[in-house]
Amino acid sequence: MHSLNSTNRISIIVTTYESPDLLEYTLDSITKQSMNLDEIEVIVVSHKNNPLIDVVVSNYQNSLNVINLSYNEDLWNEPAARNMALEYADAFVCLLLRSGSLLSSTCVQEHYNTHATNLKLMATIGFTYGNCGRQEYIDNVMQLVKNYGTDDLISYFFANKMYHDVRDESYLRFNHKIHYLPAPWAFFSSSNISINKSSFQDENIYDENFTLGYGYEDLDLGFRLYQKGAKIFLNREAEVVNYPQSSQVRIDRKMSMDAEYFFNKHNHEIIQWYDIYGELALNDQIINRSYDDIMEAM
Q: Cα separation of 134 and 41, whole Å?
C-alpha cells in the first residue's frame, strides 16, 4: 500500500501482456464509470516496460489515477503480476481485470456496493458477456464494438439473448444466489472478480506456482477464500464485455500443467468431484447427493 491518507474506495488491477489496443478499450471504459473517478485507483501491470503500453497509460493519466507497473521477469506470470499490483494497491477492495475487459458504466460501483454491504471476508463475481467460448462471438464482436458503446452493446446482447456468460444457466437455476451454494468457488474464474485483500494476512493472494493465468489461479483463490469462511457473491449487474485476443496462442500444455498442479495441491474429495463434473454441474451433484443421503436416512 502506497498511501496512508487514501481517498481510493476501490483499486482496479488490469494485467496486460503486449496488448496496447485491448488495454485502451479497458481504460476508456473505466473513464465512463458512474462512480467518482477520484475514488478509483487503476493499476496496470505490463511486461518489461513495453513502450506501447506506456504510451496508452500516459494518454489516460489526465483523466484517471492510473499507473503502469512493470513485471520484469523473463517469462510472464499472471499470478505474480497480480500479486505485485495487489501489494501496491491503495484500497482494500480490488477489482481484477485483464486488458480487453469493456466495463459497463456501473460495473465498478456495483462491485464496490457488494463489498460495502456485506462481510469483509467475501469476494464478488461479475457477469461477463462473451465468456462463452463461441467462435461466432470472436468473429463478430470486433465489428459490434465499433458500432455500439459498452452499455448499448450489453443491452443488445441481453435483449437478443446473445453471448451470455457460459455460467448463466447455472446462475439462473440458483436465482443468482450462489453464496448459498455448497461450492460457489466453482464459478470463481474470469477476469471480472473482486476481493477484499484484507482477507489475506502475510501471504500471497495468488499462488505463483500457477504459470498461465487462464483460470486455475482464480479457482484456487476462490477455493482458498471459501476454506477461510468467505462468502462468494454473484453481482449480475457488474457487467463486462470480454473483447477477444486478436491472435490465439496455443495454451493447452500449460493449461494441463496448471490443472495438474491444482488437483494435486488440493487433495480433497470435493476437488475430485470438480474434476469429474466441472463448474456447471458440481453444485447440482452435491445438492442431489445430499438429498439422496437424507432420503436414505429416512
A: 33
DSSP string, 42-106: EEEEEES--HHHHHHHHHTTTTSEEEEEEE-SSS--HHHHHHHHHHH-SSSEEEEEETTEEE-TT
Q: Which of 127-141, 144-158, 173-187, 225-239 comes out lowest in average pLDDT?
A: 127-141
Listed in order, strand segments (DSSP E) in the chain are 10-15, 40-47, 65-71, 93-98, 101-103, 122-129, 193-196, 231-242
Q: What is the pLDDT of residues 107-128, one digit of tens each?
A: 999 999 999 988 888 999 999 9
CA–CA distance from 254 to each of 51, 101, 259 (Å)? 28, 23, 8
Q: Domains of the chain (ranges plus CATH)?
A: 10-249 (3.90.550.10)
Tell me the pLDDT tens digit for each residue of 161-178: 888 888 999 999 999 999
Q: Are 158 and 125 in contact (CB under 8 A)?
A: no
**Nearest by Cα to 203 from 191, 219, 220:** 220
